[in-house]
Design a protein that fits this description.
single chain; alpha+beta; Alpha-Beta Plaits
Length: 86
């Protein structure tokens, strides 16, 4: 396994793990259980996403695409229905 990325926080890590899984890339999150020790441990560098060596390049590309993605343009909020549809 090769450590390819250090997510900002646990939420980003979970999103990236799900994205990689959806692309068929098995990923492991190192440091997940250390998050409860923040205050006693340095808060930077605890989390790390690791993948198999053969998946490292593709996983890095996917994460780079995620990090550079822009939100989709939205329609004028006043043009929709007045009631929230769930």
């Amino acid at each position: 396994m090769h450590r390819i990325y250090e997510p900002r926080d646990l939420l980003e890590a979970e999103v990236l793990l799900a994205m990689l899984d959806s692309e068929g890339i098995e990923a492991h999150l190192a440091g997940r259980h250390l998050m409860g020790a923040i205050g006693e441990l340095p808060a930077i560098g605890l989390l790390g996403i690791a993948v198999r060596d053969e998946d490292a390049l593709r996983a890095r590309e996917l994460i780079a695409d995620y990090n550079t993605a822009q939100p989709l343009p939205y329609e004028d909020p006043d043009s929709g229905p007045a009631v929230l549809l769930c």
